Amino acid sequence: MDYSDLQDSLAGSKLEALLAFCDSNYLDQLTHGDFPRWRQHLSKFPAINVADYDFSETVRFGHADGIDAETSDILKQLLLDMLPWRKGPFEVLGIFIDSEWRSNLKWARVNNQIASLAGKKVLDVGCGNGYYGFRMLAHEPEQVIGIDPHLAYVAQFWALKQFVPHLPLAVLPCSLEQVTEPLRGFDTVFSMGVIYHRRSPIDHLKQCYQCLVPGGQLVLETLYVDGPAGYSLIPAKKYARMSNVWFIPSIGTLEQWLFRCGFSNIEVIDESMTTSDEQRKTAWMPFESFEDAIDKTEPTKTIEGSPAPKRVVILATSS
Ligand SMILES: C[S@@+](CC[C@H](N)C(=O)[O-])C[C@H]1O[C@@H](n2cnc3c(N)ncnc32)[C@H](O)[C@@H]1O
Questions:
Q1: Residues lining ligand 1, judged by CB closer than 6 Å?
Q2: Summary mean pLDDT of the chain
Q3: Is the alpha carbon torsion for 213, 147, 261, 106 positive or negative?
Q4: N or C: which terminus of the chain carries fewer CB neighbours within 10 A?
Q5: Ligand 1: which residue has its CA nearest to atom 1?
Q6: What's the CATH number where 129 sits?
Q7: What is the pTM of this model?
Q8: What's residue 243's pLDDT?
Q9: What's the confidence (pLDDT) of residue 122?
Q10: What is the C-alpha to C-alpha distance for residues 216 and 233, in angstroms, rounded to an integer?
């Protein structure tokens, strides 16, 4: 987990407050989520820098011929030890990580419709293992910073990033709520797949706003339900097997929330239904997945009887 490039770029900038989350004292006191064990695990990876990478569709680092068979077996096992791989796909020196989500499909719904990231500072809130951050690098941004409190995903990111240490992408192990200072320093903020996990979705949008420069762009991607403006589904207990889903708003409700938080130019750019083509069990995520969350006799419903997952992407501008 080498944060030195990021630390250099944050020092003296509007984003300086983020230095707190890559400080060695901060990292050392993160003892939950098996983080000390994951950090030790990272030190077992073979030290290989790859010059050849490709971040279109499958995020690929090097080729199979860049590694001998014995080291490849060791590397594969080290990566498998980090199960579950939820976001991807990745290919590491010929090893294909077939993640639960084909995240390339979500990125295709977003990529060509957002403001250019070229030369920009970008924040990816709830970035998971950083799949989208790697994809964002194709835009040649100045810096991409992901944040995520789930430390096993942060460790997955560093397991991959070590192959391309010089690229301007880092993931910090923290939540958006920990970023208490209004940074007003990112040109684009992504919040994808996060807001329905928040007990206070309006505070989440306000916090995203506070991270953006005036005129910056929020890319909000979330589950939604059909219904009038003002309506939101509040699952009685679980939604699609998940117990950490609090609000699933209608699109009109999302637009009202964004407006009330000070955003303008609110634009829906995509609506889709999740399918088993996009989310499924694989060797790299062998646990329950989409098919176990959907009613087998009535596929328009989840197993709890709620509407099956639909997702929307909305763009909005801060002032
Ligand atoms: C459903 S996943 C979405 C991952 C990815 N952004 C995507 O769209 O595929 C939700 C992610 O948000 C993270 N998360 C949850 N609460 C968060 C918070 N308060 N701040 C930052 N990330 C959060 C979770 O740890 C998880 O990695």
A1: 87, 103, 125-128, 147-150, 153, 175-177, 192-194, 197
A2: 97
A3: positive
A4: C
A5: 193
A6: 3.40.50.150
A7: 0.98
A8: 97
A9: 98
A10: 29
